[in-house]
Amino acid sequence: MAILSPVTFTQWVLIVAAVMGLVCAVKDGAEFDENEEDVDAGADDNKVENRGAGVWPLRGAFGDVSSVAVHPNGELFLLHRGPNAWLATTFNESNVYQEFERGPIEADVLIGVSPNTGEELHRWGRNRFYLPHGLTIDADGNFWITDVALHQVFKVDPVSLELTLTLGEAGVPGSDKNHFCKPTDVAVTSTGDFFVSDGYCNSRIMKFDSKGNYLLEFGRPSDPSTIPAPADGLNIPHSLALIPKYDLICVANREDEKIQCFTAGLQGDVSAGQMVQQIAHPALSRVFAIDYSVPLNKLYAVNGVGFSLEDKPMSIFSIDLASNAISSWNPAEDGVDMVAPHDIALSPNGQYIFVADMAPQPTIWKFDNSDYDPRKE
Ligand code: ZN
Asked: How many whole angstroms from 38 Cα to the centroid of ligand 1?
């Protein structure tokens, strides 16, 4: 047993600070549960600030938050990096992670919270990951996590919390069938086959069967000098969304500032990887993440920090796939300060939109979705 729970420790720090007459600037940064025994400790460190109309920021006991996903039962999960951050010196020129000697993240990187109150419900994944990036939860509740430092993809059983699949070679980047290079995301079909977007340094989407056997891949590096751009050109495929209704796997092609949708081969009669549809809009700019709402039959996207003086506002996009019509909403106009949005997820019925705002103040935003109409449920 640990001597002090994190809450007790926090209280103790505040008492000491008060006694010493210190003015403590309490920052909504990360505080980490280093308690080895009490895995639920630290729950009170997550703070939801209600802003009415279903809007909240959740901040507290987590570091740079790279991903957010919703379990089929409605619970919200976030993936974070504890004290680690991706800096200019984090990788060498060969994409090899330079900080393995510091050891893995000691904190649990996967945190489950109530989608209503933000109260912490679960945590897992300590002493295993270095720079977790993508989180996906499939229809059976399995967790899929990518780690760009390890260049690996993991499947975690929701009951045993054991790894049931590990793909890639730890710490070794590559571009063959058995290696990834900073893989970003996973999308899982109803049969358990899955796609991996690979990634920051490869320009491909790979498909595997449910046992992890390589099936195929598609995509190639974008070449800005090639006009028109190749339909399957990719420059940091950063996020994936499956659209079973149309047999599509859509890709947030971040640096090319567009979304491309390819055949997913779900029916077996169409091979995966044929370009079907491209979604590009000037407002989209660097599109970081996408998610598909089955009940609303819409694709949602969030863009992120731009590189130019003409940065577009950070917005949430709702895309009608039948018409390609895009509507956008800029939360800043409603007083919400998203700084570095990195991932997006819809609640199971589409009523709420969650955004992982990575840094410097790691935040999960929750928004009412104006597309949602309870009369249509
Ligand atoms: Zn990223």
From this structure: 31
